[in-house]
Amino acid sequence: MFWTRLGSGIVLMVITIALMIVGGAPLFGVITVISVMGLFELYRAVGMQKSMPAILGYVTSVGVDILLAQGKHEWLLMILVLSLMLMMACYVIAYPKYRSEQIVMVYFGLIYVSVMLSYVFQVRFLEGGVLLVWLIYVGAWGSDTCAYCVGKLIGKHKMPSTLSPNKTIEGCVGGIAGAALIGFLFALFCYRDNTMLWWEFAVIGAVSSVISQIGDLAASAIKRNHDIKDYGKLIPGHGGILDRFDSIIFTAPVVYYLITLFYSVR
Hints:
0% strand
């Protein structure tokens, strides 16, 4: 199991590095496919993966990514409202085939998976995005690695949340501090003459680490509500798309908005 998880993790990392460097259409295409696959996993948790509302969700997901990739943010609300209307029409026409909570989950997936995950390519498409996009992974995977190491080494006090009984307060703090340090060192190495970015990247790393850990627990809460261990088996040793990208989903928007905030106040 360990070697399977390690091997698939290495392959995933290599693919991620290649996509972040190349950017453009390949990155957009992969993120769009991942979003649809993530929606399928989420919809499957509520038994809606092959329903008409779910099909509307998949189509809307692709439409959302296309609009955001083209910078047409003003159209986003329109397509989301239209999608909700069509889903509610399916709910009414097919009544009582679907439950209200199923429709809510299908629509929720568009924001939770599609819109939030789109910020990966939105950050990459920013000026200097070839470097800035790595802050997403500093706050997600970097934080997770630091939290795991610190928790294993000195973790003694359990987190108050029952969602992940093995997580410790020391690990949580270690993840935040580790992400801040990685962000600082990343800026120090890549932007040696811009001392302002050193501290901005450290702040982005710390804040995104906090949000990343919330994202991880949120995904776990959904799984527990629906009595499933993993969202899927697509990635050997890791589970499904949502099992691996749960923290990325939360970190990407935070990184995007913190970057734009820091740029706007200079």
